[in-house]
């Protein structure tokens, strides 16, 4: 050894980055690398838009591990198909949602203004909602929005 200690090894246990922080840093680096390699003119953070984010999410879709049936598949809407089908593997909605959440936090930690955060743009939220809806239909699962309970739960006694 050359006598140097890595930064992570020199920090006390409580100061080591959490699993979430490590994943957030990895996701941020992956996104920045994607932007630099696919959009060389749009390297700077202030010019990112929701279209850059949506393009990145669609790019990641090809590396997914969740079977999502096409509408033409005979097993579309069947929760547990009896045999395998040729439908593609895609990113699960929950994974995309968590990724966007981490990137949204990383954007602000890296100097981006919260009010101009492209990861929180309406187009990104609509995209995620549509992915969830389609994946639920594809697997025959219904996602019903839960109704909020009004009041504090106590009934007035007279």
UniProtKB/TrEMBL annotation:
<keyword id="KW-0539">Nucleus</keyword>
<dbReference type="GO" id="GO:0005634">
    <property type="term" value="C:nucleus"/>
</dbReference>
<dbReference type="GO" id="GO:0009416">
    <property type="term" value="P:response to light stimulus"/>
</dbReference>
<dbReference type="GO" id="GO:0003677">
    <property type="term" value="F:DNA binding"/>
</dbReference>
<keyword id="KW-0804">Transcription</keyword>
<keyword id="KW-0217">Developmental protein</keyword>
<comment type="similarity">
    <text>Belongs to the plant homeotic and developmental regulators ALOG protein family.</text>
</comment>
<protein>
    <submittedName>
        <fullName>Uncharacterized protein</fullName>
    </submittedName>
</protein>
<dbReference type="Pfam" id="PF04852">
    <property type="entry name" value="ALOG_dom"/>
</dbReference>
<dbReference type="InterPro" id="IPR040222">
    <property type="entry name" value="ALOG"/>
</dbReference>
<keyword id="KW-0238">DNA-binding</keyword>
<keyword id="KW-0805">Transcription regulation</keyword>
<dbReference type="GO" id="GO:0009299">
    <property type="term" value="P:mRNA transcription"/>
</dbReference>
<dbReference type="InterPro" id="IPR006936">
    <property type="entry name" value="ALOG_dom"/>
</dbReference>
């Amino acid at each position: 050894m050359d006598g140097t200690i890595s930064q992570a090894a020199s920090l006390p246990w409580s100061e080591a980055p959490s699993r979430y922080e490590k994943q957030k840093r990895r996701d941020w680096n992956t996104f920045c690398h994607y932007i630099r390699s696919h959009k060389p003119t749009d390297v700077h953070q202030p010019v990112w838009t929701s279209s850059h984010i949506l393009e990145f999410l669609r790019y990641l879709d090809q590396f997914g591990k969740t079977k999502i049936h096409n509408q033409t598949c005979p097993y579309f809407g069947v929760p547990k198909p009896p045999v395998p089908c040729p439908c593609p593997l895609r990113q699960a909605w929950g994974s995309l949602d968590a990724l966007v959440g981490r990137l949204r936090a990383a954007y602000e930690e890296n100097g981006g203004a919260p009010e101009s955060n492209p990861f929180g743009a309406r187009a990104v939220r609509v995209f995620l909602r549509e992915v969830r809806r389609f994946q639920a239909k594809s697997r025959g699962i219904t996602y019903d929005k839960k109704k909020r309970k009004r009041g504090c739960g106590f009934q007035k006694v007279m």
